[in-house]
Specification:
Oligomer: single chain
Low-confidence stretches: none
Strand order of the largest sheet: 2-1-3-4-5
Distance between the termini: 40 Å
Mean pLDDT: 93
CATH class of the largest domain: Alpha Beta
């Protein structure tokens, strides 16, 4: 097999659609996961806010795998949504509608582990800070493994990745740890130098497209969580449908522009922001196209499908250094808890 996941073969058998329930950072990992499952394995996949799913669940569909994602395994909304899905499926006599629950967590011994049939332990170790960083990467890797496992069994998805391309993707994944180490060291310095630019910033906009749109959302969330700066993430193509009205010289724009299907489109959207005097920060390869950006946070070129694992690093480090520059407690931000155990 391409990847060896500690899951029963029954997890993969006869799955026609997947629904993922999550909150916060876990939901952003789920959005990347949905992209991978659809594009690599060709399985229709929907992502829901767990808190919304409980009160407006979609109509029941047969042969559905439900995945709950929670770092702590104790997120109240996610557990309640999974329990509700389990109950409403058990009430249907047709075995095609039987509950099939998988959990992705950093705490397999948690309440989530007791609720679901199968558990995928991301094995990230204890994460001290309230804002999820390494566990987000762990969740992403779990979804890469899951998508490759499904693709190997179900055949290719929309990207047309055949067996050879899937093997290359799995091999490239195994090369990432060294790239990540280099990237963390490099961007630790770059983001520390950049932090002073944000000393008096009140609003930041993050832009991404395709598989990197959820990374724009995650970048905005991290900045809100630990730096207390208002930030929003948008699909870059949505800028002209409203958010562009916010832009001026006081609003920095962080744009994720990785070579692939939407590279030219993202650069065009970034140009629109620059034309409105926005300070433009690019998370992109160091190439001639990147001269558009006022500041570049360079990321090496990898397969577009793997790029979120790299593009999130400058997002996390930028938030960290801005918070530190402001004299804030980066591990214990105000009003937040590591495990959200209330609904």
């Amino acid at each position: 097999p391409l990847v060896a996941l500690p899951l029963d073969d029954s997890v993969y058998e006869g799955v026609e659609r997947i629904q993922i329930l999550a909150c916060g950072t876990s939901r952003h990992a789920a959005q990347v996961g949905a992209y991978l499952l659809e594009q690599l394995a060709g399985i229709p996949t929907s992502v829901f806010y767990a808190s919304e799913f409980r009160y407006a669940p979609p109509p029941l569909a047969p042969h559905t795998l439900t995945i709950g994602v929670t770092q702590s395994g104790e997120t109240a909304d996610t557990l309640a949504a999974l329990a509700m899905e389990q109950e409403r499926r058990r009430a249907v006599a047709d075995p095609a509608f039987a509950p099939r629950l998988l959990g992705i967590t950093n705490r397999p011994e948690s309440s989530l582990g007791r609720l679901v049939d199968q558990i995928l332990d991301i094995g990230a170790g204890i994460e001290v800070g309230v804002a999820a960083t390494k566990t987000f990467l762990g969740q992403l890797l779990a979804f890469y493994g899951l998508a490759l496992a499904f693709a190997e069994r179900h055949g290719g998805g929309a990207t047309g990745h055949g067996p050879e391309q899937l093997r290359e993707l799995a091999a490239a994944l195994r090369q990432l740890p060294q790239q990540l180490r280099t990237l963390v060291d490099d961007h630790d310095r770059r983001c520390e130098q950049l932090a002073h630019l944000f000393a008096d910033t009140q609003d930041v906009i993050f832009l991404g497209r395709g598989i990197n749109f959820p990374i724009a959302l995650e970048g905005a969330l991290k900045l809100k969580e630990i730096s207390y700066i208002h930030a929003e993430g948008y699909p870059a193509g949505e800028m002209k449908h409203g958010p562009i009205a916010l832009l001026d010289a006081r609003v920095p724009v962080v744009s994720i522009a990785m070579p692939g299907t939407v590279f030219d489109k993202v650069l065009s959207n970034a140009q629109e922001a620059k034309a409105r005097d926005a300070q433009l920060i690019g998370v992109a390869p160091d190439c001639p196209d990147a001269e558009l950006f006022d500041t570049l946070l360079p990321v090496p070129v990898v397969d577009e499908l793997l790029s979120p694992l790299l593009t999130v690093i400058p997002m996390q480090l930028l938030s960290y250094h801005i918070a530190a520059h402001r004299g804030l407690d980066v591990d214990q931000p105000r009003n937040l808890a590591k495990s959200v155990t209330v609904e």
